[in-house]
Amino acid sequence: MGHDHGHGSAATAHRWRLQLAFGLVAAFFVVELATGLLARSLALISDAGHMAADVVALGAALVATRIATRPDPTGRRTYGRYRAEVFASGLAVLLMLGVSAYIVIEAIHRVGAEPEVDTGPMMLVGGLGLLVNLVCMALLRHGSDESLTVKGAYLEVVADTVGSVGVILAGLLVRATGASWWDTAVALAIAAFVAIRALWLGREVLAVLGQHAPKDVDPNRVAAALETVPDVADVHDLHLWTLTSGMSVATAHLMTRDTAVDPARILADAAAVMREQFGIEHATIQVEPPDSAACSRTSW
To answer: Which ranges does the record mark as transmembrane (predicted)?
Structure first.
């Protein structure tokens, strides 16, 4: 049993949050990059580089949520275009890792040199960046538990928030000690934090693309629950995966007992188990009599 794919994904429901965050981050990126270059602060430039990654990632997420809701005129995309959102999250991961690598390379180039850092504009823009990021965090936090796309954007903003705190800290340390290497050290700390966040999100993206079972669903528990449906003798060919955030999918074959007389009731009960116990609304279930020759169990 099944249904069409006309409903919206979790990310689509939070599209306005992504739009507002995109506008705030894009505007601040211009300010931060210009100030970083003028103040010669690697911490500020590195945070601006991460902000640039945010702009691209948020823009990609917005495009993906739009693509995900478009109808497919070819009829060949039988699961719709929802995976576009997962690919957008993957792009965010790559951008975050790229920014981390850039910061490390720039830090290596500064070894042995201590350029004078203008801490006044550096701390001022760092404070403004902290305010912008806190607003964006408040916007995206609600949707981050429901959508992998929004979660990717949220984690980037969290990393930016830490980056803004780092910029302020670097400015205070440089001003207090007169040693500009603090600016480079803080930049490297920001790079490490961003890379760790990227790897964390990347694991989730790969789990979806690898068609792993949803992280909150145990396949053994699903099989056991289906076996409790009256007149079900055996459950096999059970597959569980995530199409995109908020959209889990399942297929299963149910072998009935000899005494079963109402396959429609078995089908309805099994669908109710999937929906009510595991939150899986799109379950394709095949009910087979015990002497069925139509079912050939897969060998993979």
So the answer is: 20-42, 86-108, 120-140, 152-174, 180-200
Structure tokens at 269: 């009960």
Give the pairing type, strands 247-256 and 282-288: parallel
- Rounded Cα distance between 289 and 243, Å, is 30
- CA distances to 64, 152, 233, 266, 281 from 284, rounded to whole Å, are 27, 30, 18, 13, 9
Among the listed residues 91, 126, 92, 103, the one whose alpha carbon sits nearest the alpha carbon of residue 49? 103
Question: Long-range contacts for 26-33 (Cβ within 8 Å, ≥24 apart)?
Answer: 26/55, 28/128, 28/129, 28/132, 29/54, 29/55, 31/125, 31/128, 32/125, 32/129
Which residue bears the tokens 């990609």?
60
Q: What is the CATH number of domain 10-209?
A: 1.20.1510.10
Full-model pTM: 0.72
Question: Could you state, in order of their start, the residue ranges of all structural domains in the chain?
Answer: 10-209, 219-288
Q: Are 148 and 244 in contact (CB under 8 A)?
A: yes
Q: Which ranges of the chain does DSSP label H, i.e. alpha helix?
A: 10-13, 15-39, 42-68, 83-109, 119-144, 148-177, 181-209, 219-227, 263-278
* DSSP 8-class letter at 112: T
Homologous superfamily of 219-288: Cation efflux protein, cytoplasmic domain (3.30.70.1350)
Kind and range of the H or E run holding 256: strand 247-256
The distance in angstroms from the start CA to the end CA of the chain is 23
β-strand partners of 282 = 249
| Tens digit of each residue's pLDDT (9 = 90 or more) over 244-275 | 777 899 999 999 998 888 999 999 999 999 99
CB 282, CB 271: distance < 8 Å = no
Q: Within the chain, what is the greatest distance between any pair of CA atoms?
A: 85
